[in-house]
């Protein structure tokens, strides 16, 4: 049985980028719902007892949707940290270091160019879904749009960074201003987590 992931920060730690109210609904209601639905669907199915990533790779329909959303949200919520620990003198947030930073610069020209493309793809995804920074087996990066619960794991890629563009992720704080929400998220990205995913 799967359980709701614990947040690695206090509910108010991401304010004002993500409010405690939004976090409460997003984590405590939406993600809990996916966990409950998947747990109800697994007994007696071919996926009972499998790890989450394997379910995502093998399942379809409702089982895939709920497993995918759990995986997506687990990666999403654990990639953030509070603003006081993250923001530098320019108040624009941090940037990646090491091998990931070098690969971003190599493929996108600069970190700023990468950010611009990432936000544009997130803002341009029609309907609900996710925008991802993903890596292939050789370490090559790409920015991908996935609708619904879909994600890089289902397509053989390593998930590194994701911004949730389902409306429940931002509507209480930003209403229909999805691009503003996406731009604000850079302030709370914990790049040490993302770098660790790239190096795994």
Please give the structural blueprint.
Elements: H1 20-41, H2 52-58, H3 61-77, H4 83-86, H5 98-108, H6 111-124, E1 129-135, E2 141-147, E3 158-164, H7 171-174, H8 178-185, H9 191-199
Antiparallel strand pairs: 1-2, 1-3
Helix pairs in contact: 1-3, 2-3, 6-8
Main sheet: strands, sense, barrel: 3 strands, antiparallel
CATH topology description of the largest domain: minor pseudopilin epsh fold
Structural class: mainly alpha
Strand order of the largest sheet: 2-1-3
What is the overall number of helices? 9
Radius of gyration: 16 Å
> What gross morphology would you assign?
globular
What is the CATH homologous superfamily assignment of the largest domain?
Iron/manganese superoxide dismutase, C-terminal domain
Can you give the mean pLDDT? 93
Distance between the termini: 26 Å
Q: What is the correct CATH architecture of the largest domain?
A: 3-Layer(bab) Sandwich
| Low-confidence segments | 86-92
What's the number of domains?
Answer: 2
CATH class designation of the largest domain: Alpha Beta
Question: In total, how many beta strands?
Answer: 3
* Residues in helices, as a percent range: 40-55%
Bin the strand percentage. 5-15%
């Amino acid at each position: 049985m799967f359980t709701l992931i614990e947040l690695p920060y206090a509910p108010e730690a991401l304010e004002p980028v993500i409010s405690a109210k939004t976090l409460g609904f997003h984590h405590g209601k939406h993600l809990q719902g996916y966990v409950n639905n998947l747990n109800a669907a697994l007994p007696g199915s071919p996926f009972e007892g499998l790890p989450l990533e394997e379910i995502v790779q093998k399942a379809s329909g409702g089982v895939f949707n709920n497993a995918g959303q759990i995986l997506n949200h687990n990666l999403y919520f654990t990639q953030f940290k509070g603003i006081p620990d993250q923001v530098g003198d320019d108040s624009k947030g941090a940037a990646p270091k090491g091998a990931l930073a070098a690969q971003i610069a190599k493929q996108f020209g600069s970190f700023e160019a990468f950010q611009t493309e990432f936000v544009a793809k997130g803002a341009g995804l029609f309907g609900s879904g996710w925008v991802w920074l993903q890596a292939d087996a050789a370490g090559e990066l790409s920015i991908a749009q996935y609708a619904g619960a879909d994600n890089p794991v289902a397509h053989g890629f390593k998930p590194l960074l994701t911004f949730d563009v389902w409306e429940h992720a931002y509507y209480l704080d930003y209403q229909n201003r999805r691009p503003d929400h996406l731009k604000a998220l850079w302030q709370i990205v914990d790049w040490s987590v993302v770098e660790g995913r790239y190096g795994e």
